[in-house]
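I am going through a labmate's work and have reached the protein record below. What it holds is a sequence and that sequence's fold in token form. Please read both lines and tell me whether the tokens look consistent with the sequence. Do not assume that whoever made the record got everything right. Thanks in advance; the entry in question is below.
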Amino acid sequence: MRELEYPFDSKYLIKKKKSLKRELLASGANFIDKKIAVLGGSTTHDIVMMLDLFLLNQGIRCEFYECEYAQYWEDVMFDNPELVSFKPDVIYFHTSNRNIRNYPEISYSKEDVKKCLDAEYDRFEKLWEKALSTYNCPVIQNNFEYPYYRLLGNADATDIHGKVRFVNELNMKFAEYAETHKDFYIQDINYLSSCYGLDKWSDPLFWHMYKYALCMDAIPTLSYNVSNIIKSIFGKNKKSLVLDLDNTLWGGIVGDDGVDGIEIGPETSIGQVYAEFQSYVKAHKDLGVILNVCSKNEHENAIAGLNHPDGVLKPDDFICIKANWDPKSINLVNTAKELNLLPESFVFVDDNPAEREIIKTQVPGTAVPEIGSVEDYVRVIDHAGYFEVTNLSADDAKRNQMYKENAKRAELEASFTDYGEYLDSLEMTATIKGFEPIYMDRIAQLSNKSNQFNLTTRRYTRAEIEEIADSDDYIELYGKLVDKFGDNGVVSVVIGHKNGDRLDMDLWIMSCRVLKRDMEFAMMDELVSKAKAAGVKTIVGHYYPTAKNAMVKEFYALMGFTKTSEDSDGNTEWTFEVSDEYNNKNSHIKVN
């Protein structure tokens, strides 16, 4: 819904929140359902209502638990029965500097000030430890905004008694905790309030009148920001930038002005702005964001522009370069097909409002930011939170290289007439094992990101993955695939829970970048082997249809299962009888 995309009109959202919610719920979207506990040190009702809207727009339908006013600490530490029975999927602690109890006095010694800092931090650390251990779900805690006045003036940031210095040191201790604890995330309202304007954000009228820790108009900004963390936890991040060239990555039109005539680099002020934007885009490769080009241009001119000596981005930084005169909507759809991604995985960046409108109407699901002038490009994309980082795995850093290697595989495939011979030529080796600590982040990430090759669409946090790995009630496998072109990383995950001599499949997922490579057969072979060893006689598979996973509707039939039931919604159940006569299905991958 455009009204809920950044930048948005806060006053409009506050006024229309109920009608917007009705419209979102009636949209027929394929929602995932989650429970969110919002535990606040101030009034949080409107935060919850705005958060509800933004998450619905991200495809997450939520049930909320909201603590009584300022009871965030008591609810967790004293095991509020209502919160315990709620069983949240995410806990969000919303506090502000007004909840800090141990500010130092001017008369305090350095040792006294340290005691204040330690006491304040310890109070929160105990809260987080209890929440993480009791509820075993992701916890989001905001850091603190600066106070709206400085008693010591500029010295408030340097003097040991200053509140600004105290907030800075407390925020650093919060950050250090987040650095060393999985499933714990910091919402940076220190930065958010600074961007918004501290005088407006912390208007004391709203505290004294309503016990709001921020002004009413800032609530959508806060809620949008925390919704980005939650949607990232549940795998709703975008995966790729698709970029125009002329007047988007450089100033001018390379076909008309020539390579020497476009503005990029240090020679002009506008060229510096475009170079900064290119640097910002290129940095996303380290996050695993896939970069692509979609430009109305002669291909040779596009490549020449990208090879400009002062340009930061080069042709090799992109996976797909669509520079031709076809409609951009067609080029974007073709890019999605080539990468085995859905259109909703993309963010389309183009300076031309007409082109943006075509993508909005012709390629639903693609994010199309209103980027404004070049000076605004970085700010708009950055604040929109398309690529919010909650977990960063080793595979993320290698993702662009993996897609380049896939292009080489596609080129090799085209040279073969026999597909089996092509698979053999890849010299594939798989590692298939039970879950190991080194891959826990990637396994959880894959469970949340996989939509197409995902039979049950179950989502797991890292903590849940660790629980499964430690339990004897499950058979769990990850699959890692390497070939002569490179390491594909962890590409498949299987989880089944044991019920006597029956194994029910909770999860079977695979990365679409290794489709039709026989990895699914290799996983099946190992699953049957593990099932035999565990005394399992029957494996039961489940398929729950969504708008995105139709490709695996008949997957279990391909694996040799027999369909035993199907309901009116298309949910199916399949059975496989484990026997000693089972013949391995994989014939092209060497399995370690």
The radius of gyration is 26 Å. The mean pLDDT is 93. The first strand starts at residue 32 and ends at 40.
